[in-house]
Design goal:
Length: 143
């Protein structure tokens, strides 16, 4: 959203201005070729299973994304959709590649969604938005 000033006309004469909210389409950066690496990670259906406390790395191509950092909000959820908590990781962006390292210190179900990241990007008035499929993780206690 952005603001736009519109003239108020009365009988063809400008008598004032009004502030109007208009939709603004931000460029969308599509994340592709997403990979998750971790010694014991397994993709079961669309969910990555990995032991809690085990380090993992997520990488993705992000052509057009400037070098820098990106705060990634990872939501701990129940019923695969309802957030109950979140944790934050900083992803590094270099030469069109996004890299995020982390580990889940608590067992549970976690998701990373474009909707949540884009809400954060909107809040900080970033000049772009992200598009990617939701990543889902089950961090488990290994025996």
């Amino acid at each position: 959203m952005m603001n736009q000033m519109n003239d108020i006309l009365k009988h063809g004469v400008v008598v004032g201005s009004a502030l109007k909210r208009v939709e603004f389409e931000y460029p969308s950066i599509v994340l592709t070729k997403t990979t998750i690496t971790s010694p014991n990670a397994k993709l079961i259906g669309n969910i990555w299973w990995l032991p809690k406390d085990e380090p993992f790395t997520i990488t993705a191509n992000a052509t057009g994304l400037p070098d820098g950092g990106l705060m990634v909000m990872v939501e701990r959820v129940i019923n695969a959709t309802q957030p109950v908590d979140d944790i934050r990781f900083v992803a590094n962006i270099k030469d069109g590649i996004v890299t995020m390292q982390g580990k889940f210190e608590q067992s549970g179900n976690y998701i990373i969604t474009a909707k949540r990241l884009n809400a954060g990007l909107e809040r900080i008035e970033a000049p772009f938005r992200l598009a990617f499929d939701t990543l889902e993780f089950d961090a488990y206690i290994s025996a």
